[in-house]
TrEMBL record:
Protein name: FI16829p1
Gene designation per UniProt: Dmel\CG31848
Superkingdom of this protein's organism: Eukaryota
Pfam families per the UniProt record, alphabetical: DUF4729
Domain DUF4729: 20-187
Length: 212
């Protein structure tokens, strides 16, 4: 399975631009630049959605609007961890970065190559590679009837092997691979080729944590 996608250079995904997800902003830049752009150029309430620990969030994706060879920002999350009375507050113009970990949920679609199946790669980008925060990411069909487990979890070759068996994604470290066949199976019903990306975040964000 993985051999078929051995030609994918996962770390190179960080150099591929994505379009800014904010309406009417045409800016295009790499995922980490996008994170800085979203925090400095846009109001948090225009660009981010606050999500608490263990609360599922779904993002609709129109498959036909994805551009092969490009990154796509599927969702921008202000992750708050477990709700903390008195500290947590909704995402407002003065987002408390102290209490939230901004994360971009990215989707890369590989370009079509003869005799090679296209890959759809989901990954999480944050300013700090927090080992305290992880996520379960799965795909759902347009009717929420079928859920495909994201078991094809690949890890950045520079990082240590996966320790847990739950196939959780860690920011800036893991990549979740789906094939064009997986996507086709999810799009079998319905005229519009649309799927949902479901994310459930776990752990306590600490924006000041720096991994040793
Ligand atoms: Zn923008």
């Amino acid at each position: 399975m993985y051999q078929r996608f051995a030609n994918l250079n996962l770390e190179a995904l960080y150099g591929i631009p994505a379009m800014c997800p904010v309406t009417n902003c045409q800016a295009q830049m790499s995922p980490l630049e996008m994170l800085a752009h979203l925090m400095m150029r846009h109001s948090p309430q225009d660009s981010m959605i606050e999500i608490a620990e263990d609360v599922p969030k779904q993002y609709e994706v129109d498959i036909d609007k994805l551009t092969p060879g490009r990154n796509h920002s599927i969702g921008v999350i202000a992750y708050e961890g477990a709700p903390k009375p008195g500290l947590s507050c909704a995402v407002t113009s003065d987002l408390q970065i102290v209490h939230h970990l901004p994360i971009i949920l990215m989707l890369y679609v590989s370009p079509p190559i003869l005799n090679t199946e296209q890959a759809y790669i989901l990954y999480l980008v944050s300013a700090v590679p927090s080992s305290l925060v992880s996520a379960n990411v799965t795909l759902l069909d347009g009717f929420h009837a079928h859920e495909k487990r994201g078991w094809r979890c690949l890890r950045n070759s520079l990082d240590s092997p996966l320790m847990d068996s739950q196939n959780r994604l860690y920011c800036n470290t893991d990549y979740l691979l789906y094939t064009a066949t997986d996507i086709r199976e999810l799009c079998l019903s319905g005229e519009q080729r649309r799927i949902f990306v479901k994310i459930v975040l776990h752990g306590e964000p600490d924006p000041f944590q720096v991994d040793a």
